[in-house]
Amino acid sequence: SGMPVLGLPGNPVSAGVCRGKVLVVGKSQAEIPRRTLTEDELSQEIQRLEQALIQTRQDILEVQRKVSEGMGTGGDASIFDAHLLVLEDPTLLEEVTRTMAEQKTNVEYAFHQVAEKFAAAMEAVEDEFLRERGADLRDVSTRILNHLMGRADEGFLRNLKGPCIIISHNLAPSETAQLDRKLVLGFGTDIGSKTSHTAIMACSMKIPAVVGLRDASLQLHTGDYVLLDGFNGVVVVNPTDQTLFEYGQLVRRQEDLDEHLRELRDKPAVTLDGARVILSANL
């Protein structure tokens, strides 16, 4: 078709190229109900919070188990240790209890207020690594709120009909961990950075991913045909045959390079004139 090729620029975080139909997943921002409580009801609300924390803990342990089984290496499951720690954070929980008592409000409302405040404070920090921890906190608090409000989460993960490229405002690390590699060809998000846990998950799962696409989730629609380039960090809408051909060559060159590197990997590091080179890394 004579449609112009639209290229949405972002940050490449997981190498690879994929093409296919888009599935735009929105976060259903459900209203957080606010109720005024009597003194007697407050203690029941605290029990509800404790119950939601227990359920969320089980959820996260389950995700962790899936991740360490699915990836063959247990390494990346440790990302969720940070999530488990949030559930035990006394400052967070004390503040929620205090807010409930002061405002005489239900636990969802108090919890949402406090978690938002904490996450926003983290996201305002200069340090990119600490900023990303705000996303981890939001991931956990969404789960807790879902339990408190009796809502099922991650619905879109269960209802994938066929292979697709997911475009979303943001993907939580726990959602990324549960993407079905057979159906999700790649994903792109409006926000996020290279140091996010979502980006790290994508790399270890070898799912091509581009983050920081700004407003891709508003510009693209479910069913659009795109090419997602995880090498250069761009999403090309309605790629032309020429573009597809060029990318086909790029992928082949990359595969050849990978193959070449695999052959070399276990050979000793020696220059042509016999000098030994010691390779070491500082992590």
Give the % helix.
40-55%
Following the backbone from N to C, one meets helices and strands in this order, namely EEEHHHHHHEHEHEHEEH
Question: What is the beta-strand fraction?
Answer: 5-15%
Provide a count of the helices: 10
Global geometry: globular
Multimeric organization: single chain
What structural category arises from helix and sheet content?
alpha/beta
Contiguous runs where pLDDT drops below 50 for at least 5 residues: none
Radius of gyration: 22 Å
Main sheet attributes: strand count, strand direction, barrel closure? 8 strands, mixed
* Count of β-strands: 8
Question: Strand order across the biggest sheet?
Answer: 1-8-7-3-4-5-6-2
The overall average pLDDT, rounded, is 88
End-to-end span in angstroms? 49 Å
Give a topology summary:
Elements lengths: L5 E4 L1 E4 L2 E9 L13 H32 L8 H9 L2 H14 L3 H17 L4 H21 L6 H4 L5 E5 L4 H5 L6 E6 L7 H9 L3 E3 L4 H4 L5 E5 L4 E4 L3 H25 L18
Parallel strand pairs: 3-4, 4-5, 5-6
Antiparallel strand pairs: 1-8, 2-6, 3-7, 7-8
Structure description:
There is one protein chain. The chain has 283 residues and is α/β, with parallel strands linked by helices. The protein is 49% helix and 14% strand. The chain has ten helices and eight strands. The protein has helices spanning 39-70, 79-87, 90-103, 107-123, 128-148, 155-158, 173-177, 197-205, 216-219, 241-265; strands spanning 6-9, 11-14, 17-25, 164-168, 184-189, 209-211, 225-229, 234-237. An eight-stranded mixed sheet has the order 1-8-7-3-4-5-6-2. α1 packs antiparallel against α2 (79-87), α2 packs across α5 and α4 (107-123) packs antiparallel against α5 (128-148). The chain is globular and about 80 Å long. The mean pLDDT is 88.
